[in-house]
């Protein structure tokens, strides 16, 4: 089948076919030619499928009413046959009833063709060019001057190339026109289309390429300002976040220089605070400039991780390294430190002094409010106990400063002791040691702390206590006979106590006259004494004597060994 879908016996075209038009391809003449060529007996010869000319052989045919030169198979230009009558350049040919179709050497008609559905409309300036056929007036596009020497057919374009627009950097100025980016939309509201590809001058009918005048330039200036503002703001944002990213990843953390500005400040570090939490407190108080700087300085110091909770006296605007160094020094510590074995009566006085309250205030609170201070259930309701809080003001360092209340300080200490005892499993381990419960285990630990002279003595002293509490003890008949419990009863610390004084006192805390443990702890045991109470030796120790009267304690398994130790003690004292 040939192009247009026409074979033998195909149905003839109708004049109302949309391929017929009244302009662009010959108007009514094209319709009549089509009727004569296809509606009658005359048919196109069979040809290879081609559409609007064969570019492969160099043939070209008109686009709209405009014609282009034709070339033979060797690329030589030749003139098509022209009808012998004249037609006005701006009008279509009048219909002719008996016009004969003309053919070129390839068998194609040289008359008008049906309208191209893609051709320009009547308002297209290229669609109104003079028809090349049917007039004696010379056609400019049929002359050699209209085209340069022929190029290879595949490189030719059906319409002339547009004139390149002048290149400008920003604002081209009044003499060069405006760049399309700043020129705004077309006059009809479109941003592009067919006319845009032909240049601004052609789109406006060959008018001034500057177009728009002052109003257009004013709009272009606003557009430039908007672009500059957006671009500048974006650049500033990118620069800022880029700098922050660099500082976070690679830059040094903000830090002060020097050892402070001389203004002292009291800083309280809560229990369990790590480097980051400490840094937050210091930054809030104005000591360091940034948390990251403190964390880095703490990591750089070999002892940095040993910083503990408590109260510190520091200065404002210190370098992070200086702050770490000072916090590691005892000079900065402003904590209330409770020593191992300290009795509650002494602790109450220390709290009064630190809080700057009347002497006896804390002792009165302990006596009247002890049930509200957080003691565990197993530590209450024991008979004959002189101070229910004894043994629960755990030896440690506490952040105590003026402005706090005695209740707050006592509650903090009780919580620390309770946490320690529960973490070591006092409730379960006390049974395995032959005790009635954790309360008695705390009492044992307080006795170990009071009677042991050094930490090396603690485990042996713990064994002495457990051996004397055994029902099978025939050496002391389950009596502990500790001076420390009698001294607690008296609120004193003596070494030389007469036998008459001891034997005449029947108070439950007097372990010379009463079997078993005293009613409760006699002081606040520290870590080593507590561990010793949980893990005594098993060497059979049942006696001990401070042979030098001070720091040296020696142990014995029976009464004979014990007597030798007593003689040694008497000799050291000149008795």
From TrEMBL:
Gene3D superfamilies: Endolytic murein transglycosylase. InterPro entries: MLTG-like. It catalyses: a peptidoglycan chain = a peptidoglycan chain with N-acetyl-1,6-anhydromuramyl-[peptide] at the reducing end + a peptidoglycan chain with N-acetylglucosamine at the non-reducing end. Residues 1-217 are annotated as: Disordered. The gene is mltG. This is Endolytic murein transglycosylase. PANTHER family: ENDOLYTIC MUREIN TRANSGLYCOSYLASE. Belongs to the transglycosylase MltG family. Its main location: membrane. CDD domains: MltG_like. The record marks 451 as: Important for catalytic activity. Residues 28-54, 64-105, 119-134 have a biased composition (Low complexity). It is found in: Cell membrane. The keyword rRNA processing does not apply. Keywords: Cell membrane, Cell wall biogenesis/degradation, Lyase, Membrane, Transmembrane, Transmembrane helix. Functions as a peptidoglycan terminase that cleaves nascent peptidoglycan strands endolytically to terminate their elongation. It is a single-pass membrane protein. Its EC number is 4.2.2.29. Residues 153-165, 190-214 have a biased composition (Basic and acidic residues). The chain crosses the membrane at residues 222-243.
């Amino acid at each position: 089948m040939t192009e247009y879908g026409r074979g033998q016996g195909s149905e003839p075209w109708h004049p109302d076919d949309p391929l017929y038009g009244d302009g662009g391809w010959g108007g009514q003449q094209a319709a009549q030619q089509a009727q004569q060529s296809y509606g009658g007996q005359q048919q196109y010869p069979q040809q290879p499928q081609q559409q609007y000319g064969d570019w492969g052989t160099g043939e070209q045919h008109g686009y709209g009413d405009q014609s282009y030169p034709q070339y033979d198979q060797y690329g030589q230009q030749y003139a098509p046959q022209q009808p012998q009558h004249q037609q006005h350049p701006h009008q279509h040919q009048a219909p002719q009833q008996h016009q004969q179709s003309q053919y070129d050497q390839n068998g194609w008609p040289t008359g008008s063709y049906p309208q191209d559905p893609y051709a320009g409309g009547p308002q297209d300036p290229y669609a109104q060019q003079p028809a090349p056929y049917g007039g004696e007036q010379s056609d400019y596009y049929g002359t050699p001057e209209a085209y340069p020497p022929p190029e290879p057919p595949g490189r030719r374009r059906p319409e002339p190339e547009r004139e390149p627009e002048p290149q400008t950097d920003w604002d081209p100025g009044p003499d060069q026109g405006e760049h399309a980016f700043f020129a705004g939309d077309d006059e009809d509201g479109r941003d592009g289309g067919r006319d845009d590809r032909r240049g601004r001058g052609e789109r406006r009918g060959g008018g001034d390429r500057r177009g728009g005048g002052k109003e257009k330039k004013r709009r272009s200036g606003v557009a430039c300002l908007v672009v500059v503002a957006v671009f500048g703001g974006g650049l500033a944002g990118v620069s800022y976040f880029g700098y922050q990213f660099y500082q976070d990843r690679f830059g040094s953390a903000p830090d002060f220089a020097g050892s402070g500005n001389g203004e002292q400040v009291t800083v309280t570090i809560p229990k369990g605070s790590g480097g980051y939490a400490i840094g937050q407190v210091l930054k809030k108080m104005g000591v360091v400039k940034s948390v990251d700087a403190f964390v880095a300085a703490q990591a750089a110091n070999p002892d940095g991780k040993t910083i503990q909770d408590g109260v510190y006296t520091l200065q404002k605007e210190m370098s992070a390294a200086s702050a770490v160094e000072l916090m590691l020094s005892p000079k900065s510590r402003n904590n209330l430190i409770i020593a191992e074995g300290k009795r509650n009566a002494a602790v109450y006085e220390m709290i009064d002094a630190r809080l700057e309250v009347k002497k006896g205030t804390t002792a009165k609170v302990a006596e009247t409010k002890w049930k509200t201070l957080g003691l565990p259930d197993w530590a209450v309701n024991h008979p004959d106990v002189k101070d229910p809080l004894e043994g629960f003001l755990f030896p440690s360092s506490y952040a105590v400063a003026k402005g706090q209340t005695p209740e707050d300080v006592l509650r903090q200490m009780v919580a620390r002791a309770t946490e320690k005892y529960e973490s070591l499993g006092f409730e379960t381990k006390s049974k395995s040691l032959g005790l009635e419960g954790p309360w008695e285990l705390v009492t044992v630990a307080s006795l170990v702390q009071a009677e042991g002279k050094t930490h090396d003595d603690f485990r042996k002293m713990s064994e002495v206590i457990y051996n004397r509490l055994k029902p099978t003890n025939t050496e002391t008949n389950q009596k502990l006979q500790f001076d420390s419990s009698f001294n607690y009863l008296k609120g004193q610390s003596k070494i030389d106590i007469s036998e008459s004084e001891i034997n005449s006192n029947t108070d439950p805390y007097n372990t010379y006259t009463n079997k078993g443990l005293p009613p409760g702890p006699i002081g606040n045991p520290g870590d080593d004494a507590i561990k010793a109470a949980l893990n005594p030796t098993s060497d059979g120790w049942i006696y001990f004597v401070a042979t030098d009267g001070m720091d040296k304690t020696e142990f014995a398994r029976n009464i004979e060994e014990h007597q030798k130790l007593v003689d040694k003690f008497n000799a050291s004292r000149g008795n």
